[in-house]
Amino acid sequence: MHNDQSFLASVQYYYDKAARHISVSDALLAQIKACNSVYRMQFPVKIGKSIEVFTAYRVQHSHHKLPTKGGIRFSPEVNQDEVMALASLMTYKCAVVDVPFGGAKGGICLDTRKYNVEQLERITRRYTIELIKKNFIGAGIDVPAPDYGTGSREMAWILDTYQTMNQEETDVYACVTGKPVSQGGIRGRTEATGRGVYYGLNEVVSFKDDMKKLGLTTGLEGKRVAIQGLGNVGYYSAKFFAEAGAIIVGVGEYDAAIYNSKGIDVERLIKYKKRKGGVKGFPGVSTFKRREQILEMDCDILIPAALEGQIHERNAGRIKARIIGEAANGPITPKGEQILLRKGVMIVPDLYLNAGGVTVSYFEWLKNISRVRFGRLAKRFDELAYLKLTQTIEKLTNKGLSVREKMSITKGADEIDLVNSGLEETMVSAYNQIRDIWKKNKKIRDLRTAAYVCSLNKIATSYQLLGIFP
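Now predict its structure.
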């Protein structure tokens, strides 16, 4: 990774750029920008026959809405600067998609490959106890979620630890999201960020005027897409793009970057990756000499879905994509962005595009607070109503429907249908708000600044309604 400046400095640069377009007091802008609470902890855990001391963090960026919300990452690169940057992004992300949370983030500095499952469980549970001790976790306080290096397994450990120490709490399941469905999780959470990337870019490419300026047609069908990072977000993004008729021409992973102008079968590739541990040697494709060349390949849409700082001043000039969709957090540095904007590249920013995860986390939190599965109350009622309607139409027209047609018409919405529908509505609505600012304010020349302006206006209004700032 090459960085022109630190990740936190990058986020604050974009903040300052957008703040020039906001008409509020300097004091309020300073409050929105600052991290409210930074908790750095060290705790010992017995690993094998020795004791290891781990450094971990939890940062609550903004308390303008509660609870605060954000993932926990396990990575050897975790540091305070990165966690503060990610917490800040979470605040802006939640505001952009109208999810009523403040932003937070957590992390433990460790390499997951060096520990077995039992050891990782011990580390996760000890971290949770540290959060409980300082009141940094709870359904109405701060709600963690999975991030890089963590998943539903770790969230189940966090829930169990919290539950053990808060047995009388009724909203205990809402203390963490991204849990297994059997533990109060929600259907559709696993693929939520990737699906959000798909819904977002599907809306972006639907505007004829915008596409004409880029020399592209509307719609995803036939668009050549390159994806860097075939983890959870990259895989599901690729899957949904392919289903929409896009051609996945390149995939970059930690071991190799591969390409085929006629398209790569993503399902076959993911099975190969699981079997071999990487994409190297996948049949029917060519391999780039350098993994970074995936970013520079000829394509219409580039999806960086790996870590931050991947596109910078040294390689931005060689980017050929017309649209870059930031599926990862902070994949483009400020200097890299300046070069891309001069070239006329459309950058769809991270604080909007990868908000699918927190949106569905919000749905999971609501489900846990209400203690009822989405669809449970209305599904059967809707099915009976639709059935009566089709029977009436059949009677009036004297024409019968096939069993398959009748089933598709009368099907009531299940949890996954409602989650996907809610996510699509969120992503479409948010993009139209951002685009509206971009088009109406002639001084705003890029979507990222428009997204930040959209976000900051909402946060500023929240603070003003609290009566703290004029």
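The CA atoms of residues 363 and 376 lie 15 Å apart.
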